[in-house]
Amino acid sequence: MGFLEIRNATKSYGSVEVLHEIDISVEKGEFLVLVGPSGCGKSTLLNMIAGLEGITGGEISIRGNIMNGVHPSRRNIAMVFQSYALYPNMTVAQNITFGLEMHGVAKSERERALRDVARLLQIEQLLKRKPAQLSGGQRQRVAMGRALVRDPDVFLFDEPLSNLDAKLRVDMRTEIKKLHQDLGATIVYVTHDQIEAMTLSTRIAVMNAGRIQQLGTPREIYDTPSNVFVATFMGSPSMNLVPVTVRVDGANVIAEVAQREGKRIGLKFFRPCEALRARDGRAVTLGIRPEALTDVEGADQRSIHVERMESVVGVAEPAGSDTFVTTRIGGVDCVARMRADAEVAPGSNAEFALNMEKAVAFDPETGLRIV
After folding, report:
1. 175 with 289, same domain?
2. Residues 212 and 340 both lie in one domain
3. Residue 22 lies in a domain
4. C-beta separation of 248 from 277 below 8 A
């Protein structure tokens, strides 16, 4: 049994079920990120863990104790909100220790906890200021300090960085990652930003329409997405999806791609599974990440299975360390990630390298990965 256990949890508003049989087991010290588009149910699930929303069906337990119906104040959780939710009339120090004071913690213990948290978050110099005198990043640190000082069983973060500018978000991601490494805390974190999900988590639950689409490590989610939704939602730019026809040629399984003027290109699958081999002559969707579609010189030299093909360059977008190139493969626009100094010009023919070790295949009807 996990430290935090969510078993067959559902949530309904009247006759409308918004969360469908959610099952997640979180171990002590894990950093679980709930990620998905707006309206997918991730914040509702977080609020159910916190006790801010009732649970319609199933169970939620912490440390083996069932939390259904338990008041939020008795769950020993700490929550960091998107809006910071600081008291404007209190100093930073008062904001951080207010919860401890309400729980009757002795003054000497409150002051010790405040010193420890302020040192950890590097906000000692801010303790006498009011929230109005702080920047967005400083306010978020104070909100985190208020959670950390509690020493809860579980930390809950509800899109805590969404109000910050791009650079500050990157900085705060690093701070949160350091805190998790230093404290070994159990964290459930909600975001719609897949970069935050990939960089912060030990595991990710990708949600859509009130269901868990895939639960796994960042590497599992990225390399072996369970379906087309996960493949396109996780990753920036998202995975390229190309319609192909499967052709079995002895020991080889070929992805046959239709190109311009009736020309067809064969791309050999790397270690094809039996389920793919059984689809001889049928359509599948080939999934390949932009970094696995690149210029020949930029291809992964460690890969033992790189296929080559020519295609016309549509758009070339220099992006500092990379150049993103759009080309049409199988009648759809695909994005290739090339070297910064790759010589490509719109309208010209270019040779592309496809790392077929990184390719996956999906059923075009169900959207599920073919395993």
Report:
1. no
2. no
3. yes
4. yes
Q: Are residues 72 and 9 in the same domain?
A: yes
The closest of 199, 192, 359 to 289, measured between CA atoms, is 359
Per-residue pLDDT tens for 252-289?
Answer: 999 999 987 778 999 999 999 999 999 999 999 999 99
Please give the angle made by the CA atoms of 214, 33 and 78, to the nearest 5 degrees: 140
Contact yes or no for 48/56 (Cβ under 8 A): no
Q: Are residues 196 and 303 in the same domain?
A: no
- Tell me how far apart the alpha carbons of residues 281 and 277 are, in angstroms, rounded to a whole number: 10
From start to end of the chain, where are the E strands? 4-13, 16-26, 31-35, 57-62, 65-66, 77-80, 154-158, 187-191, 203-208, 211-216, 240-249, 252-258, 264-268, 283-288, 293-295, 306-318, 322-329, 332-339, 349-355, 360-362
Can you count the helices (H) and strands (E) in the chain?
A: 9, 20
Q: For residue range 13-70, what is the model confidence (pLDDT) as tens digits?
A: 999 999 999 999 999 999 999 999 999 999 999 999 999 999 999 999 999 999 999 9
What sign results for the dihedral spanned by CA atoms 113, 114, 115, 121? positive
The number of angstroms, rounded, from the C-alpha of 277 to the middle of its chain's C-alpha atoms is 32
Rounded Cα distance, 64 and 314, in Å: 57
Please give the C-alpha separations between residue 22 and each of 30, 38, 210, 321, 361, in angstroms, as whole numbers. Answer: 18, 18, 8, 40, 27
- State if pTM tops 0.70: yes
Contact 326, 335 (CB under 8 A): yes
DSSP 18-80: EEEEEEEEE-TT-EEEEE-STTSSHHHHHHHHHTSS--SEEEEEETTEE-TT--GGGS-EEEE
